[in-house]
Amino acid sequence: MSHSVITLYDINSTITQPWAPNIWRIRFILNYKRLPHRTVWVELNEVEQTLRMIGAPPVGQKPDGRAVYTLPVIVDTLRSKSNPVVLSNVCTIAEYLEATYPARPICPEGSRAVQALFVHYIQEIFIKPLLPILIPLTHQRLPERTQAHLRRGGPVATPPPAAMGSYQHEQAWVAVKEQFNFLASILDKNNSDGNGVVAMGRDVSYADFALCSVLIWIERVSPHDCWARIREWNGGRWRRLHNRCREYMDVY
Fold first, then answer.
1. 162-202 pLDDT, tens digit each
2. CATH number at 6-100
3. Nearest alpha-carbon partner for 209 in 31, 74, 17, 28
4. pTM for this one?
5. Which is nearest to 119 in space by CA: 205, 230, 217, 227?
6. Where exactly are the structural domains of the chain?
7. What are this entry's molecular-function GO terms (predicted)?
8. Is the peptide bond before 72 cis (omega within 30 degrees of 0)?
9. Pairing with 5, which of 14, 181, 196, 235 sits 20 to 30 Å away (CA)?
10. Domain 112-248 has CATH 3.30.200.20
11. Residue 169 φ/ψ, nearest 5 degrees
């Protein structure tokens, strides 16, 4: 593309629409701030090679000392085509976009600490009971060559996730429901926007994008099972939040 844009690197899969929640958090911000951007799709087994090639910084280190490369990554040429900014790590990218492009802020004034705490809860606590349910479903939707790469022990080495027994599966759903109920009880303290559909009570913010990114993962990976079950919980709150954020779901 001849004009300057922000390039967002995302995971290729057999699903027609993107699903990865951390990457969706960044896509939400780009859409909300109306920043021109495009998506480059990368096979999971080619992530490290691609990110090394574009000069993206690693996000950590393995026990053997090898660098860890993960998505999302952005390349920002909006401010300078000759000296692009290349960033990794979802939190680093979000902070950069908010600081560099302050119009239409995702964190209302005075709310950064509360927003950071909410997002930390979503990614470290809220999402954990969902992982044994969603990771096997997600694995099935990766291209076969990517699944084979993981079976051989690729950079994100994991064997194919084992299917849970029926009792384990139901116990996992009990834990998921507890987290959704707890979060609903907190959001119920807001009354100015449909009984607290959004975290700040009235306008969407970064907290909502972090939460809705998880809802999109559920919807895209298991629309007729997991999403059909969850979307009407707590009086349809999660369906309404998904709908509230829909205008920022464009994929370019």
1. 566 787 888 999 999 999 999 999 998 886 544 569 999 88
2. 3.40.30.10
3. 28
4. 0.91
5. 205
6. 6-100, 112-248
7. transferase activity
8. yes
9. 14
10. no
11. -65, -45
